[in-house]
């Protein structure tokens, strides 16, 4: 039986073009009303705030399984060092991403995500759920960006494709390594799980142009990521990412170095771990003078897979009941496309 793809699963929930097409940020001197957020919840933004103690994990540490398990449980997000991806890779992807976002709006529109599509240029998929637009433009790649790159640079598309494909390969290998460590923590005795999924991936290039009024604009509105894991690179040491931390409110996650990567738990890992690893609620703020670019790599199960909470035995607790019913990945994505914030309540068991 042929398996479906993320692309096919998005077709069932088309979006309107008005929610996909970003404005032309190059031309803007003042934030228009459509992008003006009255209340950002901690304005004025304090850019000098200290980063919280998000765990920093050395992937070569002997107790890496425990470290990752603990970080996923308590934070849902951590930074990794010694991940083996050379810093040049990030620089190359960043420079190709900046090359794309620097194109005039008339060019970028040529590769705009279609109303029923998954890849290409456009706003974040969560845009229709908010009454204001975000100070953001993105470009989503799933495997090869060849068709879009040819449209943008008919005589000079190869380098963009090579860099993006290579980066996805590196991130896939790293994600798989993290995935095995996570499974090892969750269910050390069930080795069959190691081979029980096929995977899907997406690379999202995010651009947050300089914003004339950063205290009343939002780069990415609060959300959780949907798949198992996201690996994020914040280029050029520019912060902007915040997580919502119980008792501390919105807290910035500053890059610790240009080759550190941020890993965060997504909804499908939340469900698989029966809520033991909560998916982290996060958002992005913007800056008046820095054009921030980030690279987000999403790793998850193939859309025909079924996710069942792993509850046979939970560490230190004993037998526990599943908090969520089993759900097919495509059903979950479809529910989230319609309900966003309330989706977990719809799959409670
Ligand atoms: C696989 C994916 C995750 C994502 C939707 C996408 O198809 C590609 C873009 C991703 C992104 C990036 C910005 C935030 C987010 C919620 C969105 O609207 O698009 C995530 C999606 C997600 O994790 O659900
Ligand atoms: O740009 C960032 O720091 C975060 C991006 C993000 O949350 C996403 O792409 O889902
Ligand atoms: Fe995200």
UniProtKB/TrEMBL annotation:
Gene3D superfamilies: B-lactam Antibiotic, Isopenicillin N Synthase, Chain (2.60.120.330). Residues 198-301 form the Fe2OG dioxygenase domain. Pfam families: 2OG-FeII_Oxy, DIOX_N. Pathway: Plant hormone biosynthesis; gibberellin biosynthesis; Hormone biosynthesis. Its EC number is 1.14.11.15. One of its GO terms (biological process) is gibberellin biosynthetic process. One of its GO terms (molecular function) is gibberellin 3-beta-dioxygenase activity. Its cofactor is L-ascorbate. Keywords: Dioxygenase, Iron, Metal-binding, Oxidoreductase, Vitamin C. Belongs to the iron/ascorbate-dependent oxidoreductase family. GA3OX subfamily. This is gibberellin 3beta-dioxygenase. It comes from Solanum commersonii.
